[in-house]
């Protein structure tokens, strides 16, 4: 059902849900919110592994945030603040999981179309969004290859030996991508 | 039809192409040569990705220096690395992306994408993430994304270099069935079997031009 909802409705829903999360003041209300989010993932038929993949990137940030809130405030505040961040990230991930990038691009283009009058090209901005999403696995793959090469040469702890080839590779990829977009007639 | 008249290309201090002239009207044209001989630069001239420093390149009657954007819409280009040309996260979305600026109705886009993916054996992968495809499948996806625009000429820059034997064969089979003029820059000599004409480049100049047998023979001697 979530997959079929229009993108605009999902984005508006996400904004509303995040606002509600900010307004929640009791850990019990937050527990209900957790239940609702879990229910939404179940309705969208997103498996546990895919759901965990959405919040995994913020796990250490969440742990640090919880610890700091515990030290500088109290346990209920730590639970509330950390849950807010994790649930907002999970909901944003749910929107991404249930929405095609092309649909997101179309919605973004439509939403940004009034900016055409001030010289903004909505197509370029929506393209930027899609390229960002597409670049994540490419850069991750590049980082894995650089790490492997480092290991093979026995310099796995050198930050410089990791960062330099990664940045050079990413810039090369950006160059090639730009050329490929031109070749597909998308530069005019 | 592609026409080059005394084409020179200088990149920094280096002259990459030195006075290349040729008329390419054959259905299948191959370009071979050592690394750094100017092959990829020559390929880029054919759809206006590169322009000559001096001389003239005319593609389908249009000067690439003045009409580069128009020529790019008529001449498809397939790069060596498919990862660098796949723009969208999923297979079907990437093919559909090529059609965005044509402003076609959604149903027509869907039909064209499905037809193209079915033709190249990717129909079952339509909703899969593009980065999870094998190297050969990625190259076929990149080919679909170019062909869905129905180009009049297709330029392929070392399309099989990163592929294993099976996937190279897949690309070669796809190439043979294409209806338009195809120009292939390659190190993969068996790929040129049945081609009408092959050019050999060396240090920015065409040093041999003829049938695949004669041109490849010349190339082998050059590399010996």
Provide a descriptive summary of the structure in words.
The complex is a heterodimer of chains A (188) and B (224). Chain A is mainly alpha-helical and 188 residues long. Chain A has two domains: 2-99, no CATH class; 120-183, no CATH class. Chain A has eight helices and no strands. The model of chain A has no long low-confidence stretch (mean pLDDT 88). Chain B contains seven helices and ten strands. Chain B has a six-stranded mixed sheet with strand order 6-7-8-3-9-10, sandwiched between helices. A four-stranded antiparallel sheet of chain B has the order 2-1-4-5, covered by helices on one side. In chain B, helix 6 links the parallel strand 7 (153-157) and strand 8. Chain B starts with a strand and ends with a helix. Chain A binds chain B through residues 100-102, 123, 127, 130-131, 133-134, 137-138, 141, 173, 176-177, 179-188, and chain B through 47, 49, 69, 72-73, 76-77, 79, 81, 83-90, 93, 96-98, 100-101, 129-131, 145-146, 149.
What would a concise description of this structure say?
Chain A is mainly alpha-helical.
Fold topology:
The complex is a heterodimer of chains A (188) and B (224).
Chain A: H1 7-23, H2 27-43, H3 48-55, H4 59-72, H5 75-97, H6 101-112, H7 122-153, H8 159-183
Chain B: E1 2-11, E2 14-24, E3 28-33, H1 39-46, E4 54-59, E5 62-63, H2 68-74, E6 75-78, H3 91-98, H4 106-119, H5 135-147, E7 153-157, H6 165-176, E8 181-185, E9 197-202, E10 205-210, H7 212-223
Parallel strand pairs in B: 3-8, 3-9, 6-7, 7-8
Antiparallel strand pairs in B: 1-2, 1-4, 4-5, 9-10
Helix pairs in contact in B: 3-5, 5-6
Assembly state: heterodimer
Q: How would you spell out the order of helices and strands of chain B?
A: EEEHEEHEHHHEHEEEH
Strand content of chain B: 25-35%
Overall residue-averaged pLDDT value of chain B: 92
Largest interface, chains and sizes: A-B, 25 and 29 residues
Query: What is the highest CATH level, the class of chain B?
Result: Alpha Beta
Mean pLDDT score of chain A, rounded? 88
How many domains of chain A?
A: 2
Unreliable residue stretches of chain B? none
Give Rg of chain B in angstroms: 18 Å
Shape of chain B: globular
